[in-house]
Amino acid sequence: MEKNIKFYLKLFSSTFYLSAFTFGGGFVIIPLMRKKFVEQYHWIEEKEMLDLTAIAQSSPGAIAVNAAILVGYRLAGILGAVITIIGTVLPPFITLSIISLAYTAFQESLIVNYMLRGMQAGVAAVIIDVVISMVIELLKEKKIIPVAVMAGVFIAAFFFHVSVILLILISGIIGAAEMFFNPVKREGGK
Question: Among residues 2, 80, 95, 126, which one has the fewest Cβ atoms lying within 10 Å of its Cβ?
Fold first, then answer.
């Protein structure tokens, strides 16, 4: 892929746009990044985006920024990572700077409170869409263990209020065990 000014501007504007119009954090921006970079631009393969997402989620820091760094680095090296970081961090920085100037007015505004509630519903819908897409993809590939883990984690967290940290640790152990005991996966096959 030829890297020129237009490419870098497109990379910056894409991450800036996604960050500016995404409410709900990394779990919402990642599926939108997938749609933009995998489906629309075809810059990254589906499996590679899933791998980048897994790395972004397991790294310390904000998931959206981690994903932007990984995608930018994958597409254009260090310069790409810097461009995507700036594109991802700039919109919230601008928004928070403006909000901080009139914090009390925003805090007491009934309209702002209703808008935030509406955004919460939108975030929930996007997350549900991502989960359904992941489950369908995993079932197509006949990967039952990850689907069972997702269902088990949901039931444990939602109904039995099991600690998220414990669920992450158990899920990690199950994933490591599956990788260790499945020689095909260890060698990079399906």
Answer: 2
